[in-house]
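User: I'm writing a tutorial on reading structure tokens. Could you give me a worked example: one chain, its sequence, then its tokens, then a sentence or two explaining what the tokens reveal?
Assistant: Sure. Here is the example chain.
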Amino acid sequence: MMPASRSTPLAFTIVEAMVSIVVVALMLGAALTAAGAARTRQEANAARAQANWLAQSLMAEILAKPYTDPQGLNLLGLEVNELLTLRSSLDDVDDYDGLTENPPKNPDGTSIAGYTGWSRTASVANVLATNFATTSLTDTNYKRVTVTVKKGRQTMAQLTALRTKARDSW
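And here are its predicted structure tokens:
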């Protein structure tokens, strides 16, 4: 007995090959798009972590200082004898008001490596005990400290803290 002859070929047709190529190309495009988006998110998260570190380190430095000037001067901002000194010589919280660093610097004035294009600012304001959002021209025993970190023009981190005169008596 003779085997029956087949009328269909065993190989792919050109149409089937084209369809499989299109499906693979679409899947590859979607995979590359997803990988690119994941990489972009990873870089953004790393930049935010760096910005938070920059903000936290300056905030910790500021909050470690006394509420009032040890020499008895109670002026908001730098006193005359501090105008041309390094940040390491700032001796009270409000001396940091108006501090701007571009790029961010260590207390000794040296730039922090790897932060070209970044900036860091600090502001200090007397605020009311009843409403910390309301500033006062006179000392209220509460100072609001804000540190802002930017990469280029984009704000990457901003921290706000309150510093009280009572903490100095602990």
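What the tokens reveal: The chain has one helix and five strands. The two ends are 107 Å apart (CA to CA).
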